[in-house]
Amino acid sequence: MLDKISDRAREIGDEVERFVREVVVPYESDPRRDHHGAPTDALMHEMRAKARDAGVLTPHILEDGSHLTQVETAYVLIRSGLSPLGPLALNTAAPDEGNMYLLGHVGSDHLKEKFLRKMVAGEARSAFLMTEPAVDGGAGSDPSMMQTTCRRDGNHWVVNGTKAFITGADGAGVGIVMAKSEEPDSAGGACMFLVDLPDPAIRIDHVPNTIDSSMPGGHATVRIEGLRVPADQMLGDAGEGFKYAQIRLSPARLSHCMRWLGACIRAHEIATDYACRRMAFGKQLIDHEGVGFMLAENRIDLKQAELMVYWCADVLDTGDLGTTESSMAKVAVSEALMRIADRCVQVMGGTGVTDKTIVEQVFREIRAFRIYDGPTEVHKWSLAKKIKREWREADATADRD
């Protein structure tokens, strides 16, 4: 798959890596964090200004509005992830990257001009309001359980409901709101709407403290009461929201894999440097089999994760939604990266659990990554259902023969 990366994309990716290592990494010790430990918007805008000046802001979207291929995007986003701050600085972070992808593929010219332009320019963060509180029986890994509703009222739609774990909602300038239609011609399907934030009808109830801390705005619980959205701010067609969610989620899952692979590459570099410098029992740590083997296993897992990312990216480039492939990649890569991050902490001992390096943060972020965009178990369950369906189809064909 690497032979499908153009010289232009390689140049972009290499410049992104240089920028992250030389400009972004020093910001890792910057104290501008909110009470949840996430970077403040002031820190984000300062880094983005430097990325804009360096010509690497939103590097996967070209000046004419076209996108790099998924394989090329992988080459770039892996490098943007070499620092936990990298995706934020370069505007390749979740949920913005996935939201830009969705708007670019489904949005009307009106929505692209009103919302996508400022997102691509790095001027506004965005939020994707789909997940709902589990205590209310709302949508989580199963979006068909959606409780948030929308109904027509003249040339507007009115939305009501509660959302949970909405990444970046606090401080976002753009929101994509997903709701189940009450209109008979929508057959109970979901709709998506673009809204300017903040909006008095969208209230943040609270932002919980979570194990991860790389995303501004945290993961808020949001209450929507009487939100009126102009009809021309519906994304696509009424009742097609679940289909659009899949258009977004398959590449978004893979983009997560790309970014966090970059973070684990860096964590492995830090752990390797530590093991090669630290002496214990008369020799370097890496010369102790227990430590050296962990780093060797890291190298194996890193390569397997990289190959899985590029393979799935290549499938998406064929035009297939790649839901099965993205599920497999999400499981394989997130679990491999968790092993890598855990070994890095273990190799570094006490230093590994401190904030002297990014290793402990990468460990926390990867642990959260195993849950968001679908936990491992949900993807395995989905894959098992497909395996059973394929068996039934093959068995039926055998009976006919």
TrEMBL record:
PANTHER family: ACYL-COA DEHYDROGENASE FAMILY MEMBER 11 (PTHR48083:SF13), MEDIUM-CHAIN SPECIFIC ACYL-COA DEHYDROGENASE, MITOCHONDRIAL-RELATED (PTHR48083). Pfam families: Acyl-CoA_dh_1 (PF00441), Acyl-CoA_dh_M (PF02770), Acyl-CoA_dh_N (PF02771). Belongs to the acyl-CoA dehydrogenase family. This is Acyl-CoA dehydrogenase. Residues 7-123 form the Acyl-CoA dehydrogenase/oxidase N-terminal domain. GO terms for cellular component: cytoplasm. SUPFAM superfamilies: Acyl-CoA dehydrogenase C-terminal domain-like (SSF47203), Acyl-CoA dehydrogenase NM domain-like (SSF56645). Its cofactor is FAD. Homodimer. Residues 127-207 form the Acyl-CoA oxidase/dehydrogenase middle domain. CDD domains: ACAD (cd00567). One of its GO terms (biological process) is fatty acid beta-oxidation using acyl-CoA dehydrogenase. The lineage of its organism: Bacteria, Pseudomonadati, Pseudomonadota, Alphaproteobacteria, Sphingomonadales. GO terms for molecular function: acyl-CoA dehydrogenase activity; flavin adenine dinucleotide binding. InterPro entries: Acyl-CoA_dehydrogenase, Acyl-CoA_Oxase/DH_mid-dom, Acyl-CoA_Oxase/DH_mid-dom_sf, AcylCo_DH-like_C, AcylCo_DH/oxidase_C, AcylCoA_DH/ox_N, AcylCoA_DH/ox_N_sf, AcylCoA_DH/oxidase_NM_dom_sf. It comes from the Bacteria. The keyword Acetylation does not apply.
